[in-house]
């Protein structure tokens, strides 16, 4: 097995490939993380996302990467009834989630107001591939961009069949592990450090978890502009990391009562743990023996 780790997107990204000879593919895979971060981060004033922010009210031509990320985020926002909403960037910034991971500099975005903004204030033109922010607002694509990068990296590694991508706990598992069986994935316990609450078997799927591990206010309910409190963690298993990551965030906000039906409707598997450690899940999770 060959493995490599780089610090990208505010976390550590580790790629492992069971077969040899994957060095060039790994280079391309990591290249996607750097490219997508450059275009989609709100922590760099020169990023394409922040250039979009500076031109509220006007249609702005978008790269294929940024357009896809925003389009996907708006789709999840619509499907979740606003439990997931990419227009929460300014609210996140106001709560102190505004430190650039490489330079450690604090980022302040000059926005006059974004009170009451929602995903409905973002307009896409599919023919011209432009994005229009109808009002001054700041997009946060964190729960979409990292998944998009994982999926792009996975496509580079597909010819090698058996591989894993771990981007700060957001995972894509290709094929089988070095023992020739599906990968065994531990889900972190939301209350006990260095403990697992469950273990799953996964092959050719992504696994992403949203939880209140470090800070209870880092996942906001966009509908209330308050920290989401109905769940302690939400894990989603889906065909792509972009889908798993965004749906895990939405399910965390929705909580188990609405979150499990939402995941079933979206055709993915999931586990939601409440602050009291009650567990709610869809019917098709595959557990490790």
General description of the model:
By secondary structure, the chain is an alpha+beta fold. Among the domains are: 48-140, ApbE-like superfamily (T-fold), CATH 1.10.3980.10; 182-281, ApbE-like domains (T-fold, Roll). It is 30% helix and 25% strand. It is built from six helices and 15 strands. It has helices at 23-40, 48-53, 64-79, 89-94, 142-157, 241-266; strands spanning 2-8, 11-17, 59-61, 122-125, 130-133, 163-167, 170-174, 183-188, 196-202, 205-211, 220-221, 226-227, 233-238, 269-273, 279-281. Strands 1-2-6-7-10-13-14-15 form an eight-stranded antiparallel β-sheet, with helices on one face. Helix 3 (64-79) packs parallel to helix 6 and helix 5 (142-157) crosses helix 6 (241-266). The longest helix is centred in the C-terminal third of the chain and has 26 residues, at 241-266. The two termini are 24 Å apart. The mean pLDDT is 91.
Give the key terms.
eight-stranded antiparallel sheet, 6 helices, 15 strands, globular, 289 residues, T-fold, three-stranded antiparallel sheet, alpha+beta
Q: What does the radius of gyration come to? A: 18 Å
Question: Major beta sheet, specifics?
Answer: 8 strands, antiparallel
Assembly status: single chain
For the record, the CATH architecture of one domain stands as: Roll
Within the CATH hierarchy, at the fold level, what is the topology of one domain?
Answer: T-fold
What portion of residues belong to β-strands? 25-35%
Secondary structure: number of strands: 15
| Sheet/helix structural class | alpha+beta
The H/E string reads EEHHEHHEEHEEEEEEEEHEE
Calculate the mean pLDDT score and round it: 91
| Count of alpha/pi helices | 6
The shape, in one word, is globular
CATH H-level superfamily title of one domain:
ApbE-like domains
Distance between the termini: 24 Å
As a percent range, the share of helical residues equals: 25-40%
Largest sheet, order of strands side by side? 1-2-6-7-10-13-14-15
User: Uncertain regions: pLDDT < 50 for 5+ in a row?
Assistant: none
What is the name of the CATH class of one domain? Alpha Beta
């Amino acid at each position: 097995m060959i493995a490599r780790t780089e610090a990208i997107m505010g976390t550590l990204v580790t790629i492992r490939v069971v077969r040899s000879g994957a060095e060039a593919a790994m280079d391309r895979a990591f290249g996607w993380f750097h490219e997508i971060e450059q275009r989609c981060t709100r922590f760099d004033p020169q990023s394409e996302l922040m250039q979009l922010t500076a031109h509220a009210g006007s249609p702005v031509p978008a790269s294929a990467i940024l357009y896809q990320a925003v389009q996907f985020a708006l789709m999840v926002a619509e499907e979740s009834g606003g439990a997931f909403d990419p227009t929460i960037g300014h609210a996140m910034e106001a709560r102190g989630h505004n430190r650039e991971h490489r330079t450690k500099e604090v980022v302040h975005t000059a926005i006059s107001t974004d009170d009451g903004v929602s995903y409905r204030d973002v307009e896409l033109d599919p023919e011209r591939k432009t994005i229009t922010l109808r009002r001054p607002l700041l997009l946060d694509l964190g729960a979409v961009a990292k998944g998009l990068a994982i999926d792009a990296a996975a496509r580079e590694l597909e010819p090698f069949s058996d591989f894993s991508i771990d981007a700060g706990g957001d995972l894509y598992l290709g094929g089988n592990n070095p023992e020739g069986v599906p990968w065994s994935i531990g889900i972190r316990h939301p209350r006990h450090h260095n403990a697992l609450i469950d273990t799953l078997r996964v092959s050719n799927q992504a696994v992403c978890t949203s939880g209140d591990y470090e800070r209870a206010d880092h996942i906001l309910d966009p509908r209330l502009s308050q920290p989401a409190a109905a769940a302690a963690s939400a894990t989603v298993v889906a065909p792509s990391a972009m889908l798993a990551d965004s749906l895990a965030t939405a399910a965390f906000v929705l909580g188990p009562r609405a979150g499990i039906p939402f995941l079933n409707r979206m055709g993915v598997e999931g586990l939601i743990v409440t602050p009291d450690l009650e567990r709610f899940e869809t019917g098709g999770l595959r557990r490790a023996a």
